[in-house]
Design brief:
There is one protein chain. The protein is α+β, with helices and mostly antiparallel strands and about 120 residues long. It has 5 helices and 4 strands. It has a single domain, classed as Glutaredoxin, CATH 3.40.30.10. β3 and β4 form a beta hairpin. About 25% of the residues are buried.
């Protein structure tokens, strides 16, 4: 999903937090690694389906984007004061930041186990 408003609505409806992936998909080495080592793996997909609403907020250098997506993403980078990529924000249904994360070695099981521990008890 790439629509922030739709992700907020889905979070409110399901009670799941939003995993907002601020990424530079065609230039950021750590973003590419995170996607390859974690986000594209079946273990992560199964975990994500049960636990979060996935939102990709991309800041490509070579890949064209619609004006609406580009404007939305630029506004969100400013709102959340994104300093570097990848930045993973876990957001509640009102857009509040629950936790921030990034790249971590170890694959999907290590990544999701750390997220599960940090999000435990957070109000969506």
């Amino acid at each position: 999903m790439t629509d922030y408003g739709a992700a907020l609505a889905m979070s409110k409806k399901t009670g799941k937090p939003i995993l907002a992936d601020f990424t530079g998909s065609d230039w950021c080495g750590w973003c590419i690694r995170l996607k390859k080592e974690v986000f594209t793996k079946p273990d992560f997909a199964a975990w994500a389906k049960k636990n979060v609403i996935l939102l990709e907020l991309d800041y490509p250098r070579r890949t064209p984007q619609s004006a609406a997506i580009k404007n939305q993403n630029e506004g969100l980078a400013a709102k959340y004061k994104i300093q570097g990529y990848p930045t993973i924000l876990f957001l509640g249904s009102k857009g509040q930041v629950l936790w921030q994360y990034g790249y971590d070695e170890g694959g999907p099981k290590v990544w999701t186990s750390k997220v599960d521990k940090m999000l435990k008890g957070k109000k969506v």
